UniProtKB/TrEMBL annotation:
GO function terms (MF aspect): phosphoglycerate mutase activity
Pfam families in the record: His_Phos_1 (PF00300)
Listed GO biological process terms: gluconeogenesis; glycolytic process
Catalytic activity, as annotated: (2R)-2-phosphoglycerate = (2R)-3-phosphoglycerate
Gene: gpmA
Name used for this protein in its record: 2,3-bisphosphoglycerate-dependent phosphoglycerate mutase
SUPFAM superfamilies, alphabetized: Phosphoglycerate mutase-like
Active-site residues (renumbered): H9, E87
InterPro entries: His_Pase_superF_clade-1 (IPR013078), His_PPase_superfam (IPR029033), PG/BPGM_mutase_AS (IPR001345), Phosphogly_mut1 (IPR005952)
Site location (Transition state stabilizer): H182
Keywords assigned by UniProt, alphabetized: Gluconeogenesis, Glycolysis, Isomerase
Residues of the signal peptide: none
Amino acid sequence: MNKLVLIRHGQSEWNLENRFTGWQDVDLSEKGKAEAVQAGKLLAQAGFTFDIAYTSMLKRAIKTLHLVLESMDLLWIPEVKAWQLNERYYGALQGLNKADTIEKYSPEQVLTWRRSFTVQPPAVTAEDIRSPLKDIRYAAIDPSLLPLTESLETMMERVIPYYQNEISPALKSGKHILIAAHGNTLRGLVKYLDHLSEEDIVSYEIPTGIPLVYEMDDSFVPLQKYFLHSDTIGNTVL
Ligand SMILES: O=C(O)[C@@H](CO)OP(=O)(O)O
């Protein structure tokens, strides 16, 4: 049985403050750190091990990965940081409070910005302080690839090719893989792996800091998936 483990970062400071985050590089909250440590303990207890890990260029995912690996005594494994695994770029909404934004526009408008497959939130300008073009960590990347806003659909245009070209070959070579990323990055990956429709993915949510385990057949077709909670251990089917 081939397994692939995905984990959304633990609760971030802006999850806690209910703010649109996207590519803003906010830290984990204390609860988020504890979630990551607990996830690592559960993975170790359930007998998981990893040969390589993939994460984004944002510290909430990187720190989650490190806390998980530290809990598993696997800090030594190779890790790859890829901007393609960054959270969906939330454009000009980044930094705003979600409840205030509902008040200012409407619940329907905010829901559309948050969960529509195709609608992009308002873009930032290239000069905006939040623009990836202003961020040194993306300086080596072709600027035409860097987003100023993204829908789930356009985000998947970077996430899925990265999965197909980098992660899937490693999986097929027999490596045990952990991906520590973000709510929407992982929603996009789940949509791809499970062939979900645009309608189905709208209501699919991924909690912070809970490992999502894919079991795959010999052709790496997903057979089933489950969240690893303490009560899941010993009972791997949800
Ligand atoms: O703010 C964000 O970047 C994301 C994830 O926290 O929020 P949402 O749930 O609205 O996609």
